[in-house]
């Protein structure tokens, strides 16, 4: 861990060179010394003041040196070097090359030109500026001069750039005066961010020092506020563009949620807000705890190692972990088949690391946005806060825990779940202080907590809500409450199914099901109106949502997940304290969540005995409705275009035929033997009017009577 922290310190450390007079260079690293030793003799032999001849003389030797160094770096990667180490080695190599090219360019100039110039500085920008240089990354540099581009600046620019191009580097470059650079920062947020990470490479260090001094002088108050707001808005758009979830089947490890860019945004915001000079300062600034910094280092190191592997494997810049490349990446990184496929082990580790980095990055940005105020502001905050009960208060549409109530969870651990009920009922988000308090009290969720009827009551109340359940359960999951309350759910956290069918990890797939269910309540799609109506008429929607939550929990145990899932679900629900009838209903839904689709898509729906047998298993209309909904949700939440009109038609046919059996009983001639049990169990159902209008139409088409109004003594 100490080596990782040292690597992180080198990677995200900008600092300022000593603005002493004359020319300065980047630190004299081992690779810089090797580089100068490799070309010194050839450089001295080249004709003086002849840039073309010098480049022609040195180019083969420099190419050979760079190739050798890159091969050694790749070998270190293959032998298990961490991502932080490898990207820093690449940055050191480019630093050495650019610094020596600048030195050689200076020697090409006549003394008179050197004596009458204000000089310039070469500055690394963006990812190169923070020393995060993966094998296929671009090299972004800026040639910075005080006021005007004279012969000195032009000569240095041409010599360094042409040499870098000849060496095959992909170079993004600009040449700006101090005033131009600062104007560009004001006008363009992308340029602002890039220059925020500026790092001195070579040249007049005083020019760079003045640039930084003027940059920080201009960066305060509203400018910082606006920059942070713009970055957070930009991040929201980026997350939506790249799938909106950390847990996609084919994640973009740089731009997607949980990717490296999330951490970059956190660092940019912290640097703008607090003039962050070193990522380890995140701890001293109270933006992360030391433990969180250590976790952040590990997550970042893992993602950078994966990105290095992608670049090596694809021979250049590549950031998408597509299905076809996941197997070789996993194999090259040491994940081999065992009880689980190596690729599934690797992807599960990826999702854990990406999810962790996503949460830690958000924690940094939240803490930067919620600036600590003065004592006066703290008093005003307390006065403005509205008490909502249980030592929780509402302020600015967030649920807060004031400092005087920090022991509220110790006083009553049930509040660890009740706070989410308040969130659900009021539509408020949890504040940063509330989230931190929850995380620090997870130890209170013990076996008596899990068996508490009070806790169960609030949990079921959350599930009964028609909207916001998915968001609430996701936040419970992110904060560790859900897996503490239902430890079995931890078995499917970040669990991967390596196929072209499932788009999400198992836990995220579960939450997407709940998203789809909530979307039904408001859908205007004519093809989904029956689902919408059925969802709105469920008498106990919490039963369906418990089944959704637990339907894939058996996948954490390997093959045969349905049978395992039933046993796990029954154990969980018994521990929580649900009534026996509700446990039986959830168990049935978990057991049959694949069965209805299998019958609809693979069996002959004109076989009346098949329909009767299925109705016999279902037993009542309410279970049929919930199973119908669960089947639709499970298919639809797998990924785009998995649900089709053809599947919908077959599923509807099975539903309506089964509903007919449950409400009318089996057709004459099939009643004895197979269908008698269904008629006895559904006698009470046949005494009610058919709520479903299409059921009535179906019965009339089958030659049966239209349903009558309910009255005493009807049906029997």
Can you describe this structure?
By secondary structure, this protein is mainly alpha-helical. It has a five-stranded mixed beta sheet with strand order 1-5-2-3-4. A four-stranded mixed beta sheet has the order 6-7-8-9, with helices on both faces. Helix 4 (83-108) crosses helix 7. Residues 672-716 have low confidence and may be disordered.
Overall 3D shape: elongated
- Number of H/I helices: 35
Mean pLDDT: 85
What strand line-up does the widest sheet have? 1-5-2-3-4
Proportion in β-strands = 5-15%
Rg on CA atoms, Å: 32 Å
For this structure, the quaternary state is single chain
- The poorly predicted ranges are 672-716
State the major sheet: 5 strands, mixed
Give the class from helix and strand content and strand pairing: mainly alpha
Helices and strands, with pairings:
Blueprint: H1 2-11, E1 23-25, H2 30-45, H3 51-78, H4 83-108, H5 111-115, E2 121-124, H6 126-129, E3 139-145, H7 151-166, E4 171-177, H8 178-187, H9 189-196, E5 199-204, H10 205-218, H11 221-241, H12 260-274, H13 281-284, H14 290-314, H15 323-332, H16 342-369, H17 375-384, E6 386-389, E7 392-395, E8 398-400, H18 408-411, H19 415-426, E9 429-430, H20 432-439, H21 447-450, H22 453-464, H23 469-478, H24 481-485, H25 506-520, H26 529-537, H27 541-550, H28 561-576, H29 580-592, H30 595-602, H31 608-618, H32 621-636, H33 645-664, H34 671-681, H35 693-701
Parallel strand pairs: 3-4, 8-9
Antiparallel strand pairs: 1-5, 2-3, 2-5, 6-7, 7-8
Helix pairs in contact: 1-4, 2-3, 2-4, 3-4, 4-7, 4-14, 8-9, 11-12, 12-16, 14-15, 14-16, 15-16, 19-22, 22-27, 23-25, 25-27, 25-32, 27-29, 27-32, 28-29, 29-32, 30-33, 31-33, 31-34, 32-33, 33-35
């Amino acid at each position: 861990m100490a080596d990782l922290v040292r690597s992180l310190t080198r990677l995200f450390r900008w600092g300022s060179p000593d603005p002493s007079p004359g020319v300065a260079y980047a630190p004299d690293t081992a690779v810089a010394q090797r580089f100068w030793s490799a070309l010194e003799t050839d450089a001295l032999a080249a004709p003086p003041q002849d840039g073309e001849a010098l480049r022609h003389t040195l180019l083969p030797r420099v190419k050979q040196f760079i190739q050798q160094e890159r091969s050694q770096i790749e070998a270190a990667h293959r032998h298990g070097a961490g991502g932080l180490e490898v990207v820093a080695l690449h940055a050191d190599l480019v630093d050495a090359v650019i610094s020596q090219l600048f030195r050689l360019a200076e020697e090409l100039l006549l003394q008179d030109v050197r004596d009458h110039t204000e000089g310039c500085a070469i500055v690394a920008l963006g990812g190169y500026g923070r020393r995060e240089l993966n094998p296929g990354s671009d090299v972004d540099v800026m040639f910075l001069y005080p006021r005007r581009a004279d012969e000195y600046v032009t000569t240095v620019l041409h010599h360094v750039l042409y040499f870098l191009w000849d060496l095959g580097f992909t170079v993004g470059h600009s040449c700006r005066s101090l005033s131009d650079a600062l104007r560009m920062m004001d006008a363009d947020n992308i340029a602002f961010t890039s220059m925020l990470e500026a790092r001195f490479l070579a040249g007049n260090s005083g020019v760079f020092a003045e640039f930084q001094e003027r940059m920080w002088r201009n960066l305060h108050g509203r400018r910082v506020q606006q920059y942070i707001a713009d970055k957070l808005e930009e991040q929201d758009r980026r997350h939506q563009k790249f799938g909106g979830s950390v847990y996609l089947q084919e994640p973009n490890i740089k731009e997607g949620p949980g990717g490296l860019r999330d951490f970059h945004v956190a660092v940019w915001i912290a640097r703008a807000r607090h003039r962050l000079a070193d990522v380890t300062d995140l701890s001293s600034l109270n933006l992360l705890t030391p433990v969180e910094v250590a976790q952040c280092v590990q997550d970042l190191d893992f993602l950078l190692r994966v990105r290095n592997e992608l670049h090596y494997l694809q021979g250049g810049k590549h950031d998408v972990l597509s299905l076809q490349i996941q197997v070789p990446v996993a194999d090259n990184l040491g994940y081999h088949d065992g009880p689980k496929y190596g690729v599934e082990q690797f992807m599960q580790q990826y999702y854990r690391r990406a999810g962790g980095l996503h949460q830690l990055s958000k924690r940094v940005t939240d803490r930067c946005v919620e600036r600590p105020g003065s004592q006066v502001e703290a008093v005003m905050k307390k006065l403005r806060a509205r008490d909502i009960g249980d030592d929780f208060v509402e302020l600015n549409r967030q649920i807060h825990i004031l400092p005087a109530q920090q022991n509220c969870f110790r006083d009553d651990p049930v509040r660890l779940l009740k706070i989410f009920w308040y969130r659900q009922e009021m539509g408020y988000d949890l504040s940063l202080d509330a989230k931190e308090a929850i995380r620090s009290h997870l130890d209170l969720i013990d076996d008596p907590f899990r068996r508490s009827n009070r806790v169960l009551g609030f949990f079921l109340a959350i599930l009964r809500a028609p909207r916001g359940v998915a968001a609430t359960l996701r936040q419970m999951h992110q904060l560790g409450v859900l897996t503490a309350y239902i430890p079995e759910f931890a078995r499917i956290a970040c669990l991967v199914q390596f196929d072209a069918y499932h788009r999400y990890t198992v836990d995220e797939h579960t939450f997407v099901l709940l998203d789809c269910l909530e979307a039904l309540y408001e859908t205007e799609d004519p093809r989904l109106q029956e689902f919408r109506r059925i969802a709105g008429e469920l008498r106990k929607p919490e039963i369906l949502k418990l089944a959704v939550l637990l339907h894939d929990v058996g996948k954490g145990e390997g093959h045969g997940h349905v049978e395992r899932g039933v046993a796990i679900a029954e154990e969980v629900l018994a521990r929580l304290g649900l009534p026996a009838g509700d446990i039986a209903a959830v168990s049935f839904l978990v057991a049959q969540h694949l069965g209805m689709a299998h019958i609809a898509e693979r069996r002959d729906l004109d076989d009346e005995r098949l329909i009767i047998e299925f109705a016999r298993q279902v037993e009542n209309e309410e279970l049929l409705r919930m199973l119908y909904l669960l089947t639709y949700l499970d298919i639809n939440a797998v990924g785009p275009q998995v649900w089709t009109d053809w599947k919908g038609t077959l599923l509807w046919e099975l539903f309506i035929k089964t509903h007919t059996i449950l409400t009318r009983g089996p057709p004459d001639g099939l009643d004895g033997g197979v269908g008698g049990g269904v008629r006895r169990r559904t006698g009470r159902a046949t005494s009610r009017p058919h709520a479903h209008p299409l059921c009535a139409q179906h019965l009339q088409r089958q030659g049966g009577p239209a349903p009558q109004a309910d009255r005493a003594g009807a049906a029997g």
